[in-house]
Amino acid sequence: MRETKGVLFSWAKSLSLLALFFIVTLPALSQYSSGIEGTVTDQSGAVIPSAQVTITNQDTQVKQIAVSNTQGFVQILHLAPGRYHATVVATGFSTWEQKDIDIEGSDVRTMYPKLSVGAIQSTVEVTANSSAVETTSGTISRVLEQQTVESAPLVGENLYASVATLAPGVTGLGGSFGGASGSGSQGTNSFNAEPGFQIIGAGQRQEANEYQVDGTSVNGNSRDGIVNLTPEPDTVAQMKISTDIFSADKGRQSGALIEVFTKPGTNQFHGDLSEFYTGSTLTARTEFQSKVPRYLRNDFGGSVGGPIFKNKTFFFGSLFWSKSSQGVTLTQTMETPEFVTYVTSHFSNSNSLAAAFFKGAPAGGVPTSGFQTVSQIEQSLVSPYIPPDNSVLPGNLVALGNVSINQSPINNGFQGHVRIDHNFHDGNDKLFYSLFRNTTQGGVANPRPNLAYVSPNATWYHKVDYIHTFSARLLNEVSVSYVRADGTQPAAPNDLPNLPNAYPGGLGGGFSSWGPSGWVHNNWNWHDVLTYVQGSHNIRIGIDVDRQQDLDNFTAGLDRPSFSFTNIVDFAVDRPASQSGPIVDVAAGSTAKSLYSRVLMLQTAPFLQDDWKVNKKLTLNLGLRWDYFGHLGTVSYGPNPLALFTPGTGSTQEDKIANGSMLVRGANGQVVNNTLWRFAPRIGFAYDVFGNGSTAIHGGWGLYNNKIGDLSYVDGIRTNPPQFANPSISIYNAGTTLSNFSYGASTSGPTGFAPPPGISYQVDAHGGLVGTRIGVGGLQSNLISPEVQDWSVGIQRSIGNSVVIEADYFGTSSRHLYFQTDANRYAGDLIQHNGTLSRLNPSFGAVTYGQSIGIANAEVGALAISKRFTRGWSVHAIYNRSTTPAATTMG
User: Fold this and answer.
1) What is the pLDDT of residue 543?
2) What are the DSSP calls for 64-122, one per residue?
3) What residues of the chain score a pLDDT lower than 50?
4) Are the C-beta atoms of residues 814 and 889 closer than 8 Å to each other?
5) Per-residue DSSP letter, 450
6) How far apart are CA 4 and CA 882, in angstroms?
């Protein structure tokens, strides 16, 4: 009961905060971004002005009315996706009706009303073409309707992994890739907070993809191309995948745009219950498994929707749970019981950390093959130390062997969703609210069960959208959204938090932990757009404002030092070959006590879009967007901005690195000195070849300014001097002995580890530490934001009333892609100095330096055929062929 009350309180608190936020701001992209247009004519093709057109949502009976202009053209915009009924009435003509018009998300559908002379009381009814081609936009896309989403076999019950690649020009397997698996986003499901997917739009990086739910971006801010929210399939009305976007009011990213539109309530109460089950009893073992590891997955839940006030206010809600355990087989080289017994019995009284590791984090299995003795290990992995004699470790002692370990880490999840739609002022004004709440408990396997852990993650999604109609020609839409993703990684059990990380050479499973650590991502978006219809022009002017925060407390993970050992023999006798950490506070002269980082980002994009109906057959999409990223972001630890490695003077890049130093950029720690902005023009066209919607040619060209996720540069600069330093020591460096290492346990957790003895806290002229080379990070002080040009052309042909065939061509040209490497080295350095890097700049070790120098090009051809069936579901077949005329290079 206490847990239930806590959950209800959390929901109530969140709803109250969102309501307050909405009231205070009163103003991400539109949920109501669809529409319908057409030219009203008589049977001879002459236009009919002043015809009244009524569009009615068949599920909610909400109506919108417009009147054709002097050219007979009429347009009704800001419709929600759904099925509509159109009625056209004009004096002296019979009433024209068309039912079952499917309006897709972010799409303007063309109808072709031809009125017959007669009395208004008589009605001419025509059948909607379920296989309509694209006649109003240059964008090449694919829409998957509700029945297809519900009926398709979904990998892991996940929309993105299963059906997002069913669009022309989109390749990749769709599987989970590039997400935050270490922080709990495990497996493929609808609950993870930071998953990524192998979805490649027109040959571009998956980092260039954009995900939207009901018009709001749900991309994570730290990693490019990952998503914070995946709606359960039973909550989805439509899913749209666009390979390119030639409209300035959306599509900041140049990759695939994946839009999910959730189900609204209707005038009828409706609901469903569902369950999905699979498990190890239904799975065959692999070649490398002696048996299938135990796993199961049971997803269950339901949804309900209906009217609050008929024809006006509607609700939809859902609750889904997942109870699962993953089946994981880990094949590793691990220590033998004999070796463990020898070490723990002979060295435990000498404060051996190896004995403490073996006791605190024993292997999860016993080796059965591939055995190696102490002598064999010493011969294959030669130690820099004098080997211990046989009285210490017998040469014939079997130390290592291969083992297969089966584990079943849990992966539980929950998703709750509420949606409210309210229509007033005769359907001309609309208010929309949507909420999602996700939680997961993602288990991370480890060959040492005590080092496995469960990472809790959570996501909040709120959106409020309001449309006000001033007149038949002028309306405004404003929306505000908030997406929050957070997670924690717990501490290891028992006394393990007081042990450092250890990585013995030849041992498959090392000893490491990161917790307790936590992170929070806050993303606010404000979107405002004014739409003005003038003749055959649909003009939209507006702005997107995104405020993002990445708040990380990784003190425990960063402070815990890491030691590597040449082999397990050196590990047994406490002889490390190298050390990294703990992070030190230079001013305090001790291990850092707080490494809480704040990364703040602000992005704005005013835009102007004109969709111009040039004539009955040709539509032009003309847009201009101004993407502004400021100084990319600001990075600070508490009140102190962070310094970045900045190249100095010189005639060559090597000279500049050699003369580089640590500098704070701006008063608040801005990432780059210059402000990043660029205009992004877009041009699209759609040509209705025969003027009847049966054949269309469409395409366009656009310029895009891709966002750079902050993790691209933040990971390399978290511990930069002169505020902090990450000392590193190697036994291979001249003058280094065992006494220079601080290999030992802590008595007070991660912040209690001792820095290397004798380390200097004096800062040299370049910002490094005197006598110690430390790794640092930085990026171009005057960065250029990634620039991508997309172009495409396609032709569609409708066959009959349900089949569409098409052929498409896509091209991309990318410049100034972000790329980082160790800049503090030169060709031949290792050879000249017998395997040791002398470095260009002797004040530092590795310098992880980011630059906008990447170049990539791609071309993709696609053939596709789609068939829609009368019950609302469809079948799609696509063949894609891609080439890379110029491989990715570094300029």
Assistant:
1) 95
2) EEEE--TTSEEEEEEEPSEEEEEEEE-TTB-EEEEEEEEEPTT-EEEE--EEPBS-TTS
3) 1-29, 886-891
4) no
5) G
6) 52
SS (H, E, C) 114-149: EECECCCCCEEEEECCCCCCCCCCCCCEEEEEHHHH
Q: Are 598 and 770 in contact (CB under 8 A)?
A: no
CA dist., res. 881 & res. 885, Å (int): 13
C-alpha Rg value of the chain to the nearest Å: 31
Rounding to the nearest 10 degrees, give the CA dihedral for residues 397, 399, 402, 405.
120
CB 536 within 8 A of CB 73: yes
State the Cα–Cα distance between residues 498 and 502, nearest whole angstrom: 12
Cα–Cα distance for residue pair 525/539, rounded to 1 Å: 22
Quick one: DSSP state of residue 754?
Answer: P
256 HSE (CA, 13 A, CB side): 31
pLDDT at 871: 67
User: What pLDDT score does 15 carry?
Assistant: 42
Tokens of 364: 């999860």
Q: What is the pLDDT of residues 372-388, one digit of tens each?
A: 999 999 999 999 998 77
For residue 388, give the DSSP letter: P
Nearest in space to 402 (alpha carbons), one of 511, 290, 569, 500: 290
Contact 53, 76 (CB under 8 A): yes
For residue 506, with 0-12 CB atoms within 10 Å meaning exposed, 13-18 middle and 19 or more buried, which class applies? middle
Secondary structure string (H, E, C) spanning 863-878: EEEEEECCCCCEEEEE
Residues 249 and 529 sit within 8 Å (Cβ to Cβ): yes
Cβ pair 846, 856 in contact under 8 A: no
β-strand partners of 439 = 414, 458
Report which of 320, 251, 48, 128 is spatially closest to residue 682, judged by C-alpha positions: 251
